[in-house]
């Protein structure tokens, strides 16, 4: 299953939803697709969808999904990272009326460069190729996300263990 989420931002993200629906219609996407469409006006015809989902349902879809495709909001792409999954991130863009500026594009570029744990798709016509090649792309990326708390605990544990040597 592929799970798509556009978040809860008040502007539409019809561009992503229409492309996912087109890919599903043309059987480029053979998986079942569940999309959370938010405040978009586009209503998918070839995918299951819901405007909004509870936190529990979001978590369940993320856990069950083979691929998670999300907009560029940090909370949306951090959730699959916490599950050890590499998300495909399609940032909202101002020129399409999807956001007030291009901060999602800029932020996602930085995350990709510094963290290496997302697949960034800025041009929607490349999304189908990325999905088709997802399994080959993922092994080269840093899988998952380690929390700051975990890093601190690991470092503290290392220091304590060295004190007794």
Radius of gyration: 17 Å
Largest sheet: 6 strands, parallel
Beta-strand residue percentage: 5-15%
Strands of the widest sheet, in order across it, are: 3-2-1-4-5-6
Describe this entry's structure for a reader.
There is one protein chain. With 165 residues, the protein is α/β, with parallel strands linked by helices. It has seven helices and six strands. The protein has helices at residues 14-25, 55-64, 74-82, 103-115, 127-132, 134-137, 148-163; strands spanning 2-5, 33-36, 48-50, 67-70, 88-89, 119-120. The protein has a six-stranded parallel sheet with strand order 3-2-1-4-5-6, sandwiched between helices. The mean pLDDT is 92.
How do the strands and helices of this protein lay out in sequence?
Elements: E1 2-5, H1 14-25, E2 33-36, E3 48-50, H2 55-64, E4 67-70, H3 74-82, E5 88-89, H4 103-115, E6 119-120, H5 127-132, H6 134-137, H7 148-163
Task: Give a quick rundown of the structure.
The chain is α/β, with parallel strands linked by helices and 165 residues long.
Q: Any descriptors?
A:
single chain, 165 residues, alpha/beta, six-stranded parallel β-sheet, 7 helices, 6 strands, globular
